[in-house]
């Protein structure tokens, strides 16, 4: 069991029986207010033979809560090079988070051997404390800390030394480091109370000034191996949690509504999206990237939903008070100017950069495939490139889909191929390794297979795959304000990211990126694709630090650029073998709700009619409603601490979409006539008025529920004008004189009911069967009398009926 897995394990206070006396050693404590990067560590004092044997493996806690909490704030240098100082300085803060005083608070720095596998980029951070066998001496940072009191300190340690304790770093690599804090809680004994871990990338070793012998191995700098650089492709995501309010159909002149105004802050100076874009602008400028190596290795992934939102924000927008109600009250949005400026900058960058469109709203492709609606699938996969190109005025990469969950199952792969995808980008641990049969198709690969690759499924034959390094993606996902863990991260590589400081998580990401250039230099054809999560909360200086690391690798010759176009053009040995473990994590109820509302949108779309005189087409009118469903299936934020919040947003979105569709369906109806409808005869027609309050024309069918005494003729398809009404003449035949109740309604062309049912009371002047009998009897009598007269006339006999009548 790892240290982190047990970091919050409860322990009785009386169990603090281990005594560890801190020693003053060569790990030097410097005042927090002094600049740490340039500070030389003091000469060693005291015994450097401190041992870890008496230190408990698990930090002591009280009722599940730590006595002390250690947080790393800066690491200098963040990446060690041949020109760096020969020591590392860490600034950190220790805080008393317990319920009693802690005395003799002391810290020391420890290190372990370099990471040698991609999985080790994560698992090395969960090693037991005694695995960090290169140790410094404990240095007291506070004589005592009262409850809620904190103390900031700087701690330095040599990278390598033969005369005093050091980190034991003798070659370039990525090294896990640990800060260990001990103390003596009131009423208890001295124990290890917390630790903090991070990765330190060492791309080159500086000269060790402590070595007097000029022929010593560490008397000169040790540069990295650049003979076999790694070919690197970097995807840079620009995306956000869906913000457009749901349940509102498209229009030509109405302002859009947002569920909140947080996007305004993200687009403004210093906001998350501003810093992500600014990092690209800065790192790719000619002065810093004269050969264009970084620019050619970089491809910007853009969520079309973000572009749609920002583009609409530039024209002014509203913010709703209740996201679950499409008719909610609103207030004015404040981010129009920031949106316009950010969009203009993005257009400039995109015009000279590789751009690829993400799935719309980072929707769960597995869920969309399960729903099985081709139109919804097209909106998720095919339409995004057109949206991005239309708004930015560029030509983005086509036939390429970046998986939102890190993998695709066989059904999803088939759906993507049907939607025009040729290549899908997935995590390397979502792809099964090739079989032993030499005739079997192999996977498309751009990195070495992961140790955790799956083997359950058979190869598909419709889609090729390229993949990114999953461990590096997990490290990048930890960067930012809201760290996350990708869904396909193996259990042994998972730990509680909230226990790490933001600085420590950034160090882990820098270490992961450098790892691919430092390890495996003797392996030919080395390649790597670096892909952060699509919804990435990196901000502040973090995006610039990451791009600066990539740029340094390219400039130093440790890496070479590999454009996305080259990656997609590389020949593959066969279709990918994808794992069924990559299926959607959404619950069946959510998928069922989306499926039902999607069917209603399709039904409505079939009945809407395009008006050549109106700019609002049926497609534009229904597109926001379909996009609302994709937003409800968004993966943004699902794997982070805001998963409950994003889940609630998805539920509100589905509720609003249902209400919006109910309102649209209710806007087309038959108006109920007042009183009783009297027919002039048994075959008189009924006159009904159908009303359409939608801004587009609609074709409807008339549905009639009449009693057996009434026969209604089918009137076929009727077109109702936009925001208008039409009288429908309904041929009817009644063979009864009593009042009849007839239910009328209109439906879409596939029979889905629109509006409410109108009940009409019908009265006819017809006498039914009695009238028919009387008429028949009268006719028979007439024929009888006429025949009698003719009979007498033929026989020359006077007709008795003529008695008393004389001719003039």
Taking the sheet with the most strands, its summary is: 5 strands, antiparallel
Reported CATH architecture of the largest domain:
Alpha-Beta Barrel
If you consult CATH, what is the topology of the largest domain? TIM Barrel
Summed up, the domain count is 5
Distance between the termini: 135 Å
Look at the structure and give the mean pLDDT: 83
Note the quaternary state here.
single chain
- What's the β-strand tally? 32
Radius of gyration: 38 Å
CATH class of the largest domain: Alpha Beta
Keywords: Membrane, Signal, Transmembrane, Transmembrane helix
Protein name: Glycoprotein
Describe this structure in words.
By secondary structure, the protein is an alpha/beta fold. The chain has 5 domains: 4-219, Sandwich (Immunoglobulin-like), CATH 2.60.40; 274-306 and 350-583, TIM Barrel, CATH 3.20.20; 590-664, no CATH class; 668-764, Immunoglobulins (Immunoglobulin-like, Sandwich), CATH 2.60.40.10; 770-802. The chain contains 17 helices and 32 strands. The strands form 9 sheets. Strands 6, 7, 8, 10 and 11 form a 5-stranded antiparallel beta sheet that branches. Strands 12, 14, 17, 21 and 22 form a 5-stranded parallel beta sheet that branches. The radius of gyration is 38 Å and the shape is elongated.
């Amino acid at each position: 069991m790892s240290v982190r897995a047990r970091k919050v394990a409860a322990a009785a206070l009386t169990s603090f029986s281990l005594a560890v006396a801190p020693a003053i050693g060569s790990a030097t404590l410097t005042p927090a207010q002094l600049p740490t990067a340039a500070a030389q560590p003091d000469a060693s004092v005291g015994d450097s033979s401190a041992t870890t044997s008496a230190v408990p493996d698990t930090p002591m806690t009280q009722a599940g809560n730590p006595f002390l909490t250690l947080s790393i704030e800066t690491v200098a240098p963040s990446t060690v090079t041949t020109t760096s100082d020969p020591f590392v300085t860490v600034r950190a803060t220790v805080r008393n988070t317990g319920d009693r005083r802690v005395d003799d608070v002391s810290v020391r720095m420890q290190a372990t051997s370099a990471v040698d596998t991609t999985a080790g980029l994560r698992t090395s951070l969960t090693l037991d404390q005694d695995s960090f066998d290169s140790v410094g001496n404990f240095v007291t940072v506070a004589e005592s800390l009262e409850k809620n009191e904190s103390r900031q300190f700087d701690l330095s340690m040599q990278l390598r030394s033969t005369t005093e304790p050091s980190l034991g770093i003798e070659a370039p690599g990525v090294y896990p480091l640990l800060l260990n804090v001990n103390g003596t809680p009131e009423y208890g004994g001295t124990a290890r109370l917390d630790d903090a871990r991070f990765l330190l990338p060492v791309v080159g070793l500086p000269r060790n000034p402590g070595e007097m012998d000029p022929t010593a191995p560490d008397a000169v700098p040790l540069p990295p191996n650049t003979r076999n650089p790694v070919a690197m492709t970097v995807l840079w995501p620009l995306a956000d949690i869906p913000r457009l309010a749901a349940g509102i159909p498209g229009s030509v002149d109405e302002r859009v509504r947002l569920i909140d105004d947080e996007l305004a802050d993200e687009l403004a100076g210093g906001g998350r999206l501003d810093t992500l874009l600014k990092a690209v602008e800065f790192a790719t400028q000619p002065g810093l990237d004269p050969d264009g190596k970084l620019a050619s290795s970089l491809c910007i992934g853009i969520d079309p939903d973000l572009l749609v939102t920002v583009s609409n924000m530039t024209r002014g927008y509203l913010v709703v008070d209740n996201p679950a109600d499409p008719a909610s009250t609103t207030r004015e949005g404040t981010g129009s100017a920031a949106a316009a400026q950010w969009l203009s900058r993005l257009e400039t960058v995109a015009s000279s950069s590789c751009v690829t469109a993400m799935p719309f709203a980072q929707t769960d492709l597995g869920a969309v495939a399960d729903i099985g609606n081709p139109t919804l699938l097209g909106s998720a996969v095919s339409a995004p490139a057109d949206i991005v190109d239309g708004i930015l005025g560029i030509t983005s990469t086509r036939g390429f889909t970046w998986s939102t969950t890190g993998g695709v199952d066989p059904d999803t792969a088939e759906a993507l191929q049907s939607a025009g995808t040729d290549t899908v980008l997935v995590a390397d641990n979502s792809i099964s390794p090739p079989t032993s049969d030499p005739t079997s198709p192999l996977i498309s690969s751009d990195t070495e297979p992961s140790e955790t690759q799956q083997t359950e499924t058979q190869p598909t034959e419709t889609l090729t795959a390229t993949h990114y390094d999953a461990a590096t993606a997990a490290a990048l996902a930890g960067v930012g304000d809201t760290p996350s863990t990708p869904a396909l991260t193996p259990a042994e590589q998972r730990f509680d990211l909230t226990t790490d400081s933001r600085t420590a998580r950034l160090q882990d990401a820098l270490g992961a990126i450098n790892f691919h250039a430092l390890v495996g230099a003797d392996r030919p054809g080395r390649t790597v694709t670096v892909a952060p999560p699509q919804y990435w909360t990196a901000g502040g200086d973090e995006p610039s630090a990451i791009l600066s690391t990539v740029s340094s690798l390219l400039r130093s010759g440790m890496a070479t650029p590999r454009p996305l176009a080259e990656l997609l053009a590389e020949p593959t040995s066969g279709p990918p073998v994808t794992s069924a473990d990559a299926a959607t994590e959404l619950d069946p109820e959510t998928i069922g709700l989306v499926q039902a509302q999607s069917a209603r949108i399709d039904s409505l779309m079939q009945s809407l009619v395009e008006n050549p005189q109106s700019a609002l087409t049926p497609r534009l009118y229904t597109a926001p409603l379909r996009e609302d469903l994709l937003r409800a299936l968004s993966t943004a934020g699902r794997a982070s601490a805001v998963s409950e919040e994003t889940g609630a947003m998805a539920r509100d979105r589905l509720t609003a979409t249902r209400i919006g569709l109910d309102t649209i369906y209710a806007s087309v109806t038959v108006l109920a006539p007042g009183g009783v409808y009297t027919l002039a005869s048994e075959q008189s027609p009924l006159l009904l008025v159908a009303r359409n309050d939608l801004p587009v024309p609609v074709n409807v069918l008339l549905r009639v529920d009449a009693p057996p005494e009434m026969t209604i003729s089918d009137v076929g398809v009727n077109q109702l004008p936009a925001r208008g009404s039409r009288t429908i003449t309904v041929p009817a035949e009644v063979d009864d004189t009593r009042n009849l109740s007839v239910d009328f309604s209109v439906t879409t062309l596939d029979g889905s009911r629109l509006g409410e049912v109108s009940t009409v009371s019908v009265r006819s002047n017809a006498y039914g069967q009695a009238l028919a009998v009387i008429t028949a009897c009268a006719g028979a009598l007439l024929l009888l009398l006429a025949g009698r007269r003719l009979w007498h006339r033929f026989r020359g006999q006077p007709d008795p009926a003529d008695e008393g009548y004389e001719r003039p």
